[in-house]
């Protein structure tokens, strides 16, 4: 209904902003990602919006990037994922990381977000995997082939008795520092760092 708003940023908080457009102040709920993209208060901005209409309320959500709004709309289309859960997801990790996790079927990454259980994470991936690739295209979403290597290495480390969370942090660091590592390389480097 309301595609975007262009006006003066009057108030800025981590969870909401107020934009004045032609004398009308709009209270808009935002994610921490959008908050990080906003500079100081009292500037002219354009923000993409999503209006949620319920029986007892009308809530306006705002996004600095069109792609974040599209991801938000895809997330709330999943059964059991409401607007506040979707906003929490977009506040917890970067939208691009959410898209990559869904596209590559990384349940652990989706489940690491507060309030997302195993079943919800699986449902999100099942419902949105194809849609993410269709809406954003293969070029927009980087589906890492090394993701399976990461999962295999993580599984091996868990079998060896290491806790999942610390092992995953070490593996993530290795994945960033090493180009296309094999499962063996990941495990060897992880064992040195654990």
Give a verbal description of the structure.
By secondary structure, this protein is α+β, with helices and mostly antiparallel strands. The chain has nine helices and five strands; from the N terminus they run βββαββαααααααα. The chain folds into three domains: 4-63, OB fold (Dihydrolipoamide Acetyltransferase, E2P), CATH 2.40.50.140; 66-140, 5' to 3' exonuclease, C-terminal subdomain (DNA polymerase, domain 1); 146-193, Helicase, Ruva Protein, domain 3, CATH 1.10.8. A five-stranded antiparallel sheet has the order 3-2-1-4-5, with helices on one face. Strand 2 (16-21) and strand 3 (24-29) form a beta hairpin. Helix 2 (66-76) crosses helix 3 (83-92), helix 4 packs across helix 6 (118-140) and helix 8 (164-177) crosses helix 9 (183-193). The model has no long low-confidence stretch (mean pLDDT 86).
What is the count of β-strands?
5
Question: How many independent structural domains?
Answer: 3
Q: What is the fold named in CATH at topology level of the largest domain?
A: DNA polymerase, domain 1
Strand arrangement in the largest pleated sheet: 3-2-1-4-5
String of helices and strands: EEEHEEHHHHHHHH
Unreliable segments (pLDDT under 50, ≥5 consecutive)?
none
For the record, what is the CATH homologous superfamily label of the largest domain?
Answer: 5' to 3' exonuclease, C-terminal subdomain
Please give the CATH class of the largest domain: Mainly Alpha
> Roughly how many Å is the radius of gyration?
19 Å
Report strand %: 15-25%
The total count of helices amounts to 9
Shape: elongated
Mean pLDDT: 86
Largest sheet, if any?
5 strands, antiparallel
N-to-C CA distance: 52 Å
CATH architecture of the largest domain: Orthogonal Bundle
Helix fraction by DSSP (H/I, runs of at least 4): 40-55%
- The computed structural class is alpha+beta
Keywords: ATP-binding, Cytoplasm, DNA damage, DNA recombination, DNA repair, DNA-binding, Helicase, Hydrolase, Nucleotide-binding
Family: Belongs to the RuvA family.
Organism: Gillisia limnaea (strain DSM 15749 / LMG 21470 / R-8282)
InterPro entries: DNA_helicase_Holl-junc_RuvA_I (IPR013849), Hlx-hairpin-Hlx_DNA-bd_motif (IPR003583), NA-bd_OB-fold (IPR012340), RuvA (IPR000085), RuvA_2-like (IPR010994), RuvA_C (IPR011114), RuvA_C_sf (IPR036267)
């Amino acid at each position: 209904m309301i595609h975007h708003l262009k006006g003066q940023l009057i108030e800025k908080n981590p969870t909401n902003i107020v934009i004045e457009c032609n004398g009308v102040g709009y209270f808009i709920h935002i994610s921490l990602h959008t908050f990080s993209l906003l500079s100081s208060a009292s500037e002219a901005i354009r923000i993409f919006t999503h209006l949620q209409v319920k029986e007892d309320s009308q809530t306006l959500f705002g996004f600095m990037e069109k792609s974040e709004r599209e991801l938000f709309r895809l997330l709330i289309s999943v059964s059991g994922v409401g607007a506040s859960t979707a906003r929490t997801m977009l506040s917890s990790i970067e939208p691009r990381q959410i898209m990559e996790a869904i596209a590559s079927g990384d349940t652990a990454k989706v489940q690491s977000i507060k309030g997302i259980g195993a079943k919800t994470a699986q449902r999100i991936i099942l419902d949105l995997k194809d849609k993410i690739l269709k809406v954003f295209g293969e070029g927009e979403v980087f589906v890492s082939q090394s993701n399976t290597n990461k999962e295999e290495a993580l599984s091996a480390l868990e079998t060896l008795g290491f806790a999942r969370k610390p092992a995953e942090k070490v593996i993530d660091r290795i994945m960033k520092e090493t180009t296309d590592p094999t499962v063996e390389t990941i495990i060897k480097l992880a064992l040195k760092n654990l």
